[in-house]
Amino acid sequence: MASPLTGKTIAFLVANEGIEQVELTEPWKAVKAAGGTPTLLAPEKGKAQAFHHLDKADEFDVDIAVADADAADYDGLVLPGGVANPDNLRTHPEAVAFVRAYTEAGKPVAAICHAPWTLIEAGVVDGKRITSWPSLRTDLRNAGADWTDEEVVVCPAGFTLVSSRNPDDLPAFTREMVTAFAS
Known about the structure:
This protein is 31% helix and 28% strand. By secondary structure, the protein is α/β, with parallel strands linked by helices. The protein has one domain (9-182): Rossmann fold (3-Layer(aba) Sandwich), CATH 3.40.50. The protein has a seven-stranded mixed sheet with strand order 6-3-1-7-8-12-11, sandwiched between helices. It has a three-stranded mixed sheet with strand order 2-4-5. The protein has a two-stranded parallel sheet with strand order 9-10. α5 links the parallel β9 and β10 (146-147). The longest helix has 13 residues, at 21-33.
């Protein structure tokens, strides 16, 4: 029996600094365990610096600069959180354009914690039911989203969006993420 993500390539889009490490590594492990191929995209080739909250953690090799990536090449998109990561990422037009092109193609996205800031910048949350770190509630509502405080939310309208609030939600987040990417 094939694993649910066999033959699927999943993009992980991050800034080159500020990623909440566990929000990158746990979904990455879940993609690999389900038979998928994860690929790390960032504004610049080289390294991406992760954090354990405010303390520096590991560095990860960036596979592709997002400007050189084509949304058509991916079957799923993961947007890890961390406060600095999505705040930085949304200032890179090529990253925002990638997210917009990806969602316009109707492909599934998984965003956790502060990651929906990038979705707001891409203009793709209007009408979406979503959860996030609580401080994004007003930003998401102002962008037209229906924000709720739940462990995981799956919204199939337009493109499937899987969202969660924080690292405590990772088991539910990764389970629903794999299901969305497998469909």
